[in-house]
Design goal:
By secondary structure, the chain is an alpha+beta fold. It folds into 2 domains: 30 residues; 142 residues, Oxidoreductase, molybdopterin-binding domain (Sulfite Oxidase, Chain A, domain 2). It has 5 helices and 10 strands; from the N terminus they run H-E-E-H-E-E-H-E-E-H-E-E-E-H-E. The strands form 2 sheets. A 5-stranded mixed sheet has the order 2-1-10-5-6. Strands 3, 4, 7, 8 and 9 form a 5-stranded antiparallel sheet that branches. Strand 7 and strand 8 form a beta hairpin.
């Protein structure tokens, strides 16, 4: 009887360790909690969350995802402007986005729909800085979805300018 009990304990321990090993990757891919005030909420068709049914990010969390730069002339500023921020494709990957469209909602309730395919196709950024400085709300910040307008004549059009939301606060994946 003792041998059988030890066998069961060993089996249960092995099963428990295997279950823990399987569970670790999902915990490792979970988003951390913001340590500062959140500036972005992503909801909808996402797999990776840290706040109920949503993913929330503060500035350090966004900065930790990596950065890219777009320098371009825009209709909103004089001369070429340098934008630094998170590639939108990377942000979608980080939250496990499974939809095909995104609705960006600004602090002033402006909203625009953007095909998620634009992000990889054009290298769209969620800009956190303009000309090297964090953007304040009064400067179209803290987050601004920008396209590399100068890289392709197609992007210098009303369609893509309308997809370029500033003072972004929320993204809903559809």
């Amino acid at each position: 009887m003792t041998g059988l009990l030890i066998g069961k304990r060993t089996l249960m321990t092995t099963i428990g360790m295997a279950a823990a090993a399987v569970a670790l990757p999902s915990r490792a891919s979970a988003l951390p909690q913001p340590t500062e005030s959140p500036i972005l909420r992503i909801a909808g068709k996402i797999r990776i969350k840290n706040d109920g049914d949503a993913a929330v990010f503060d500035r350090p969390m966004l900065d930790s995802l990596g950065s890219a730069t777009i320098t371009s002339v825009t209709p909103w500023f004089d001369g070429p402007v340098r934008f630094d921020g998170v590639p939108m494709a990377k942000l979608m990957e980080t939250v496990g986005a499974t939809g095909e469209m995104l609705t960006a909602i600004a602090l002033n309730d402006y909203s625009t729909d953007i095909p998620i395919s634009d992000f990889a196709r054009f290298g769209v950024l969620l800009a956190t800085k303009r000309n090297g400085a964090p953007m304040r709300v009064s400067e179209k910040g803290p987050l601004f979805i920008v396209y590399p307008y100068d890289s392709n004549p197609e992007l210098r059009s009303r369609l893509y300018y309308s997809r370029s939301a500033w003072s972004v606060a929320q993204l809903i994946i559809q």
